[in-house]
Design brief:
Layout (H helix, E strand, L loop, with lengths): L1 H47 L3 H15 L3 H11 L9
Helix pairs in contact: 1-2, 1-3, 2-3
Protein backbone atom coordinates (compact mmCIF):
# COMPACT_ATOMS: atom_id res chain seq x y z
CA UNK A 1 0.00 0.00 0.00
CA UNK A 2 2.86 2.39 0.85
CA UNK A 3 4.57 1.96 -2.52
CA UNK A 4 1.27 2.48 -4.36
CA UNK A 5 0.74 5.73 -2.44
CA UNK A 6 4.27 6.89 -3.26
CA UNK A 7 3.81 6.05 -6.96
CA UNK A 8 0.41 7.75 -7.07
CA UNK A 9 1.81 10.86 -5.38
CA UNK A 10 4.79 10.93 -7.73
CA UNK A 11 2.49 10.49 -10.75
CA UNK A 12 0.30 13.33 -9.50
CA UNK A 13 3.31 15.60 -9.09
CA UNK A 14 4.57 14.79 -12.59
CA UNK A 15 1.13 15.53 -14.03
CA UNK A 16 0.87 18.79 -12.06
CA UNK A 17 4.31 19.86 -13.30
CA UNK A 18 3.35 19.06 -16.90
CA UNK A 19 0.10 21.01 -16.64
CA UNK A 20 1.92 23.98 -15.10
CA UNK A 21 4.50 23.87 -17.89
CA UNK A 22 1.76 23.85 -20.54
CA UNK A 23 0.03 26.75 -18.82
CA UNK A 24 3.25 28.79 -18.85
CA UNK A 25 3.75 27.98 -22.53
CA UNK A 26 0.17 29.02 -23.34
CA UNK A 27 0.50 32.26 -21.37
CA UNK A 28 3.78 33.05 -23.11
CA UNK A 29 2.16 32.54 -26.52
CA UNK A 30 -0.81 34.69 -25.50
CA UNK A 31 1.49 37.46 -24.32
CA UNK A 32 3.39 37.40 -27.61
CA UNK A 33 0.12 37.48 -29.56
CA UNK A 34 -1.11 40.42 -27.51
CA UNK A 35 2.12 42.30 -28.21
CA UNK A 36 1.82 41.66 -31.93
CA UNK A 37 -1.81 42.81 -31.89
CA UNK A 38 -0.83 45.97 -30.00
CA UNK A 39 1.95 46.79 -32.45
CA UNK A 40 -0.35 46.14 -35.43
CA UNK A 41 -2.95 48.42 -33.89
CA UNK A 42 -0.28 51.10 -33.55
CA UNK A 43 0.67 50.71 -37.21
CA UNK A 44 -2.96 51.09 -38.31
CA UNK A 45 -3.54 54.00 -35.92
CA UNK A 46 -0.50 55.79 -37.33
CA UNK A 47 -1.26 55.11 -40.99
CA UNK A 48 -5.01 55.79 -40.91
CA UNK A 49 -5.47 57.97 -37.81
CA UNK A 50 -7.69 55.26 -36.30
CA UNK A 51 -8.61 55.18 -32.64
CA UNK A 52 -7.52 52.13 -30.66
CA UNK A 53 -11.02 50.70 -30.94
CA UNK A 54 -11.18 51.31 -34.69
CA UNK A 55 -7.78 49.69 -35.22
CA UNK A 56 -8.78 46.64 -33.20
CA UNK A 57 -12.12 46.41 -35.02
CA UNK A 58 -10.37 46.48 -38.40
CA UNK A 59 -8.07 43.64 -37.31
CA UNK A 60 -11.01 41.68 -35.89
CA UNK A 61 -13.11 42.06 -39.06
CA UNK A 62 -10.13 41.14 -41.25
CA UNK A 63 -9.64 38.04 -39.10
CA UNK A 64 -13.29 37.03 -39.35
CA UNK A 65 -13.56 37.70 -43.08
CA UNK A 66 -10.40 35.80 -43.94
CA UNK A 67 -11.03 32.97 -41.46
CA UNK A 68 -7.54 33.53 -39.98
CA UNK A 69 -6.46 34.08 -36.40
CA UNK A 70 -6.36 37.71 -35.35
CA UNK A 71 -2.77 37.23 -34.13
CA UNK A 72 -1.74 36.00 -37.61
CA UNK A 73 -3.31 39.07 -39.21
CA UNK A 74 -1.46 41.24 -36.70
CA UNK A 75 1.91 39.63 -37.48
CA UNK A 76 1.31 40.29 -41.17
CA UNK A 77 0.56 43.96 -40.49
CA UNK A 78 3.67 44.28 -38.30
CA UNK A 79 5.89 42.54 -40.87
CA UNK A 80 4.58 44.33 -43.98
CA UNK A 81 3.21 47.59 -42.61
CA UNK A 82 -0.04 46.91 -44.47
CA UNK A 83 -3.30 45.07 -44.00
CA UNK A 84 -4.33 42.87 -46.89
CA UNK A 85 -7.98 41.95 -46.68
CA UNK A 86 -8.88 38.69 -48.35
CA UNK A 87 -12.19 36.94 -48.18
CA UNK A 88 -12.12 33.14 -47.99
CA UNK A 89 -15.78 32.16 -48.46
Amino acid sequence: MGIALILATHGGLVLSERLASQRVENLTKALQSNREIGVAMGVLMNQHQFTRQEAFDVLRVASQNSNRKLADIAVEVVDTGALTIEHHG
